[in-house]
Structures are given as structure tokens and as C-alpha cells.
Design a protein that fits this description.
By secondary structure, the protein is mainly alpha-helical. The chain contains five helices and no strands.
Length: 107
Amino acid sequence: VRDKISWNIRSTTTEDQWYLLQPWAQREIDLCTRVAEQFPNNYFAWAHRYYVISILFNHWPNDGKKYLSDVSVAGSLRSFLAGEVMFIEQWLTTHVSDHAAAHYGTE
């Protein structure tokens, strides 16, 4: 089931899929965090995290699609991405030698 959701998110974003996007992204981000905690400097965890965030950014609700102009969706994604910025800032202050995280933070 997870692969089907991932494929649907990668291919196109319909109204129904849009509401699956953020929970999917949160699960993937949580997984990346756990992997990065267990295996310091894990480039693949941070690369996947970047991929997930790029999916969110590429489907940002400013593209004129009617269903993406929903204020609650835009606000929810905005707060999600703001939380990600705060996370990486905090992570880098506590994991100063994590070069993979530092690279992710500059992206």
C-alpha cells in the first residue's frame, strides 16, 4: 500500500491524493530522523528526507489549481515546512559533525 501511495504522489497530485501527501511525508520524515539518529552521517537518510521535502515543495499550493488553494492545506504545509526548518537548525546545533545534515540544511 505504501508503494502505491508513493507512486501516486510522484505521478500526479489530485484532490484526494493531496490530503494523503502530508501524512505520507510525515511518516517518511520520522523514518529518516530515526535512521539518522542510529547511523550518524547517513547520507541516504538525508537524501531521502530532501526528496520528501522536494515533493512537498513541488506540489506547493501556489500553482492555481482550485483544490490547492484551500487555506487549510496551504497553512498546514506552510507550518510543516517551517517545522522542518526549525528541526534542521536544532539538529545542526546538537550534531555539529554531521556533514550530511549540514548539506541538507543548505538545500
